[in-house]
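Sorry to interrupt, but I need a hand with the structure work. Please put the record directly below this note.
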Amino acid sequence: MKKIDPKKALFKKSVELGEGKITGHNFGEEFNAKKFFASFKYTGFQATNLGKAIELVREMQKQKATIFLGFTSNITTSGLRDIITYLVKNKLVHFLVTTTGGLEEDVIKTHGAFLHGDFNADGAYLREKGVNRTGNIYVPNERYIWFETFMKGVLQELYHKSKKNDKPINSVDVVTEMGRALEGKPNAEESFTYWAYKNNIPLLCVPLADGAMGDHIYLYKKDHPDFSIDLIKEVEVLYDAVLDADKTGAILLGGSVPKHHIMNAFMLREGADYTVYINTGYEGEGSNAGASPEEAKSWGKASPDSNNVKVWGEASIIFPILVAAAFKLK
């Protein structure tokens, strides 16, 4: 057996690798928001990735990239909905893709608030009381009863227009009509659906037939068998926007269909220029949420020389910091 020198093993010679000294924010001096956000990059772990994300989003704006924002329904369930409304109202993002829940809950909140709840609440008790739970957020079922009336009006308007003009209804029409229907209503200006309509910012909802909206479309079609919705238009709108953009950036909250819908479209132009992922997806499971920016490069969803980062974290914590540092702070 070869004799091992323990000192040689323990005191192996090294070289200096890496960039920048690991350090935290100095709270011993007067607080400065700009310095505080800048400190993330050199803190280590996910704070460093968040610091890189802040730099990337600033660079997207500097390069006047078309920014695609994708987010799952739970983002709208939470207070992040108000942050998205801020971005859309001020035209800081240029294209939105969400799920059915993301769209319908934005509209529902113009009617009634969602409420603080408990992760560990008794599900049977909540069901008895007509209260739906998403995490630690309660949604009284009355909100969805109101939404049925709202959607019936939207579908009725689209159906009559379709008959009058002899043109099929498409999924983009549905979302646009939802925004238009909010105009003049209480709390409309709290809605990103409303501001997307007002500012002519494309807002796609995929898959449209999921969730409560799918329920109401199903019920409406029962009364109007000739009612149908063409889903192809949204693909045309998304792909045209991707191909028409000079530079492209994506901010993707969560995984699911919005993340894939946007990243898949980028394949038409050999990939996005900038991407920021914020989710807790695990790459080892092979899921869409877990897929890394490097995996996206292999598909041509991100360009070979693109700038990308994934912040592994929960968006309700990460996204407000990103928006404050990259959009609000000048």
